[in-house]
């Protein structure tokens, strides 16, 4: 009997798990494949909602690897990466996966790629070729690309960029954003069900707010920028705001503390460590916009033909739909963005918005590549020169 190919998916945050869920389901449902899941990072932190429990509702987690310390300073992040290096080397030695699947550009994922590369384990990387100029993510993402052997990108522009980094074209696949499959696969909550699930009534206007630290900025600028944002949304009328916490990057805890203090003083707002995939995607049906600097405002929100107010430079460089309003973290710029969001001209434009990240269906295609590609010599990489 032929051994099943063991595909190990590593997830460190609620965000990457949401995008990986459709692919995980495809792998799990294929009888010729053996799914392995490793949960790490924010998933195992009480501070960020212990989101590994969301994973366990649907799948078995093979390994839980704790790496986060009680600080988000640059020193703590570096120490977390060191701990991850040790722990993942032991986990991969035990699980012996045939191929690792990772997504994105976070520091713990860089460590996973490093360990797999040293262990001669093939790496499949999702979401390469993208740009986020306001964070260290670019350097991490491109480094992961150079360590990976298969690349699943979301647009033709991103495919071109990965090839520009020297990767072989026949190892780079553009299947669109696979995480969009959630929109079609999940049975989304109705409005009353959603309100009940978050114990919060929606208003005439509603916003879904997620803001992460810009890791290239110092603490003083992060605080100043975020205070400008809070000052602006305080003046919005007939508007309810659903906050989700910032991630564990340096500066994230500062932002979360400021949100907690804000919500304690404003009854029209509510804060969640994590909404979970179902509630988050369901929320996109009922809000006017995603506000902040999260990638979901770039990738997922356009599929619901709602606006996105993208603040600052964290997502600068990503391809975006015309539903995305870019602004600076100043009160004047933010006010102009909200005025545009609710203008008649912009609302009419939303009716014909197309999502540049595709219409779903990518998860099955990725799974088929992972299932059928020859892995026997895939770790021997060639550098493709551009002539």
Q: In terms of quaternary structure, what is this?
A: single chain
Question: What's the level 1 CATH class of the largest domain?
Answer: Alpha Beta
Query: What would you call the shape?
Result: globular
Q: Count helical runs.
A: 15
Strand content: 15-25%
Mean pLDDT figure: 92
Second rung of CATH, namely the architecture of the largest domain? 3-Layer(aba) Sandwich
Provide structural commentary.
By secondary structure, the protein is α/β, with parallel strands linked by helices. The protein folds into 2 domains: 5-175 and 361-372, 3-Layer(aba) Sandwich (Rossmann fold), CATH 3.40.50.2000; 189-350, Glycogen Phosphorylase B (Rossmann fold, 3-Layer(aba) Sandwich), CATH 3.40.50.2000. It has 15 helices and 13 strands. The strands form 2 sheets. A 7-stranded parallel β-sheet has the order 3-2-1-4-5-6-7, sandwiched between helices. Helix 1 crosses helix 15, helix 3 (74-95) crosses helix 4 and helix 9 (219-234) runs parallel beside helix 10 (252-265). It starts with a strand and ends in a 15-residue tail after the last helix. The model has no long low-confidence stretch (mean pLDDT 92).
């Amino acid at each position: 009997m032929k051994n099943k190919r063991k595909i190990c998916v590593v997830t460190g945050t609620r965000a990457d798990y949401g995008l990986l869920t459709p692919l995980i389901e495809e792998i799990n449902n294929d009888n010729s494949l053996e799914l392995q899941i490793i949960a790490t990072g924010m998933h195992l932190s009480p501070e960020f909602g212990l989101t590994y429990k969301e994973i366990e509702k649907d799948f078995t987690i093979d390994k839980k690897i704790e790496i986060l310390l009680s600080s988000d300073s640059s020193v703590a992040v570096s120490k977390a990466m060191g701990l991850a290096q040790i722990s993942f080397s032991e986990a991969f030695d035990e699980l012996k996966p045939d191929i690792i699947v990772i997504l994105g550009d976070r520091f713990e994922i860089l460590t996973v790629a490093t360990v797999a590369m040293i262990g001669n384990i093939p790496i499949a990387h999702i979401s390469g070729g993208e740009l986020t100029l306001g964070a260290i993510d670019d350097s991490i993402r491109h480094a992961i690309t150079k360590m990976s052997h298969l690349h699943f990108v979301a647009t033709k522009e991103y495919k071109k960029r990965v090839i520009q980094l020297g990767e072989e074209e026949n190892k780079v696949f553009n299947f669109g954003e696979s995480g969009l499959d959630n929109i079609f696969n999940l049975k989304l909550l109705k409005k009353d069900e959603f309100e009940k699930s978050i114990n919060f009534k929606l208003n005439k206007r509603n916003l879904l707010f997620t803001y992460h630290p810009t890791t290239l900025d110092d603490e003083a600028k992060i605080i100043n920028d975020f205070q400008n944002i809070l000052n602006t949304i305080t003046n919005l009328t007939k508007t309810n705001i659903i906050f989700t916490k910032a991630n564990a990057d340096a500066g994230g805890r500062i932002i979360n503390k400021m949100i907690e203090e804000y919500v304690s003083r404003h009854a029209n707002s509510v804060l969640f460590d994590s909404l979970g995939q179902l509630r988050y995607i369901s929320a996109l049906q009922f809000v006017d916009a995603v506000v902040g600097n999260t990638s979901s405002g770039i990738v997922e929100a356009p599929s619901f033909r709602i606006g996105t107010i993208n603040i600052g430079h964290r997502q600068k460089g990503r391809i975006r739909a015309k539903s995305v309003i870019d602004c600076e973290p100043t009160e004047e710029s933010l006010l102009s963005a909200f005025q545009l969001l609710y203008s008649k001209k912009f609302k009419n434009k939303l009716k014909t918005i197309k999502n540049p990240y595709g219409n779903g269906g990518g998860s099955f295609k990725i799974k088929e590549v992972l299932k059928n590609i020859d892995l026997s010599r895939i770790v021997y990489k060639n550098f493709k020169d551009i002539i």
